[in-house]
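Listing 4. Sequential folding, example run.
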Amino acid sequence: MHYIIFDLEWNQAMDPSRSVPGLPSEIIEIGAMKLTEDLQPAGRFETVIRPQVYKRLHHHVRKLTHVRADELESGLPFAEAARRFLAWAGEDAAWCTWGPSDLPELQRNIAYFCPELSLPWPLFYYDVQKLYGLQYDGRNTGKALEAVVDELKLEKDVPFHRADADTYYTMRVMQQLDMKRLAPMRSVDYYRIPQTREDQIRLKFETYSKFVSCGFASPDKLMKDKEVTDLPCPFCGGPTTLLVPWHAGSTHNYLCVGTCPTHGKLRGKLRVRRHPSDVHYAVRTIRSVDEEEAKAITEKYESAKERRREQRREARIRKKSTT
């Protein structure tokens, strides 16, 4: 096994209304580094890609990356760049990125330009941004790469915002992480979701569990599925008793509270997402919850329920007053 850290730069339409269906962004640069299991550099890949769809460089991309038009003109077509990159990466690669956006973009461009190529599925990867937050802040804080480089007091010897440079800095940050301890904390890419119930993804981590559903025709059908709204204990896998039912915590997010006879109170969270294939799927996480957080969720649920009762009472009064 080896690590492949990579970063992409991409261009887009000057006018968003003129974006090409299936290709909102076009990759113009790939930068990557290969690391051994003990995080030592073992190879480097970088290439500029000649745009074929969005040939005019967006002003924001030009300002951020400082890429020149003549660089792009001499670049490889994306299909050839992707073939070389995947061959260089090899089959035994553990993919690593800063944040969750690069792998979906890579796959979207592959699907558009060279659909005969593909990445493995399910596609697990290491989100170095998240791992840094877990090690240093105790949670995923979503900090910018340059801010983390400053926090770690790493030397900034090349400019940011080019694919090879951001890959280099991501490697420097990753070398500060305890990857042996963090190795189980893999992320899941959602560009391709499970197609059947048998393919649904179930992961168990030290402190929580994750479930990724297949697609449903609507959020209502998804929320009526017992397998989606189940609340198994993430530690023993046993059944739990629901204390606070699933309810909307925010837009497209649902919460619940349950209890396991052995492991105590648990918080379930469902994130309902719309996939580009026009189906809806859920990402469910279950973890321990302390009394204070369980109480806060319960109070918000009861408060929302009371507001709905009051709205129904007011609606009945208005209806009577008009008859």
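-- end of first protein; second protein begins --
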Amino acid sequence: MKSFIKKIRLYGRLISALNGFLYDFYRFYLFSAWRSDMKDAEQRNYNAVKIYHTLEKSMSLKNRRLGAGQSSAYILLDVLKYAKKSNNIGFHDKAALSTLSRFVELDGINKVEWVEQIRKELLAFDFFSDEVHGSQIYRLEDFRKGMLENPEKFFFSRHSLREFKNEIVPEHVVKRAVSLALKTPSVCNRQAWHVYHTSDSDIKYLALKYQEGNRGFGDRVPNLMIITTDLKAFVSGYERYQHWIDGGLFAMSIIYALHSLGVASCCLNWSQTPAKDKMLRSLVDIRPNHTVVMMLAIGWPDENNNICVSARRPLDEVYSSLNARRKL
């Protein structure tokens, strides 16, 4: 009998996983950009950055092939035409126009026929970005300015805290950390992240109600962040996991950005059932196209803090030289 119950529990894990996969597929069907609807401003902007980033990459190469980027330039021009018709110009619409304008002014392609055609069509647009787009010189001395004098000291001094000083972290500090984290790399530079933040006790209670890792300290968390990614940024079926990957990278950047500002944090997992994900959304206002990646409890550390002694695996267990399976 015990053996039978054990098997049921084991296969129950697979059934639970299947339920989760189907829920994720359904949300991908509902909210991702697989339809490529350019009338949807958000989908169009994510599509625009995906395309203009290919031009940025082309411009950043020292030895460019003449004619490189032609197809992307025409596709981006079509996206810009949709933007102009919409009368709803977004950040990436402006950046796309600025990038394409810089692209057609590159040395060596000025007299190419297709470039002249695009340049003439660009005269019809007037929503340029005030920021620098395309490419720029990045010197070794610029790179070295960002190097930490003692990276081990910075990374090894960060610990998860579950008890904090009884003091709210000001919103301007939270926003500064998020601004720092915006330098996180993402697929095609789409930056599909969104952060929900609160220090309101009632809202924190509702948000943490179905998060099972905050027992014993959740009621004393000063600030709470919910880190999400926007499914509208993802088009292809092979990008089905990309929102989790990009969201995880962004979350880690926020954690270290907070650490650099003296703010402690504790990661709160949101690997939950479809039912609990729906319950969370019924309690707090999270947009339906935003996938919850994780929650983050944050606060100022006390003068003295108790932390878990969380041992790290030996380096040789997580690092290997990559070898080919067969000779070329």
